[in-house]
Write a structure and sequence with these properties.
Elements (H helix, E strand, L loop, with lengths): L1 E6 L10 H11 L9 E3 L5 E3 L25 E6 L10 H17 L4 E4 L14 H7 L10
Parallel strand pairs: 1-4, 1-5, 2-4
Antiparallel strand pairs: 2-3
Amino acid sequence: MYLVIHCTDTLAGRPVTSDEIRHWHLVERGWKQVGYTDMIHLDGRVERLVKNNEDEWVDPWEITNGVAGINAVSRHIVYVGGKGGDTRTLAQKEAMLAYVRDMIKRFPDIKVAGHYQFDPHKTCPSFDVPAWLLSHGIVKNIYKL
């Protein structure tokens, strides 16, 4: 299983709602499902976008459209921001680290990656995910190409 980190590609400090995410993905792009399981707001609050049963299997009704080709074996989390660089607030950084650590605790073999690691045309989530993980002592769960 993979945990893929994304950004909303919005300007620093601009709030984003789950309704906006749904509009961008379901209406503008015509997807059947949003691209992310959860979203980290500017204040660090984590909002569930797609319900799931919290097990290690991504059931068909849990699949999001985060990264073509691996969605059936992935969870996707997005932080609000990321346009022009790493715009994560301190609260978002803390929430993201707690989220990643929780996923690793529950799923010891999960591989954590940035969206850009699966698509060379992307810069999302606008920071070096493997380096960030290493800086927090997370080694085993780093996705490597």
